[in-house]
Amino acid sequence: LNAVALVVVVATGPLDAQISSEGTVRGVVRDAEGGVLPGVIVTALSPAVPGTYSAVSESDGQYRLLNLPPGVFAIVAELPGFARYTREGVEARAGLNLTLDIVLTLGS
């Protein structure tokens, strides 16, 4: 019985030590009055990193950009009726989970 328990502990040990090679950016999208905004398209763009990384904010305004490879990104948020939001210089790194809350203002 002890030998079986030891095998289980040894087999699961390395799994806990693994670090993701990708990063995450998450947050909440709100309007200028603090109300949450669902349906906002949030995109991470980088001239140096191939691929498109997008998410849509949920009913509670939360969004998650998952599996971002290491690199520097511009985070862009768009919703009809609101001004486009851009945050430059967001650095994704392996295993890093960033929080970036976004406030959208009404468009002209």
What does the model show?
- The chain is mostly beta strands and 108 residues long.
- Helix content is 15%, strand content 44%.
- The protein contains one helix and eight strands; from the N terminus they run H-E-E-E-E-E-E-E-E.
- It has one helix at residues 2-17, and strands at 23-31, 41-45, 53-56, 62-68, 71-78, 85-92, 97-99, 102-104.
- Strands 1, 4, 7 and 8 form a four-stranded mixed sheet that branches. Strands 3-2-5-6 form a four-stranded antiparallel sheet, with no helix packed on it.
- A hairpin with a 7-residue loop joins strand 2 and strand 3.
- The longest helix has 16 residues, at 2-17.
- The relative contact order is 0.28.
- Residues 1-17 have low confidence and may be disordered.
Features:
108 residues; globular; 15% helix; 4-stranded mixed β-sheet; single chain; 4-stranded antiparallel β-sheet; 44% strand; mainly beta; disordered N terminus; 8 strands
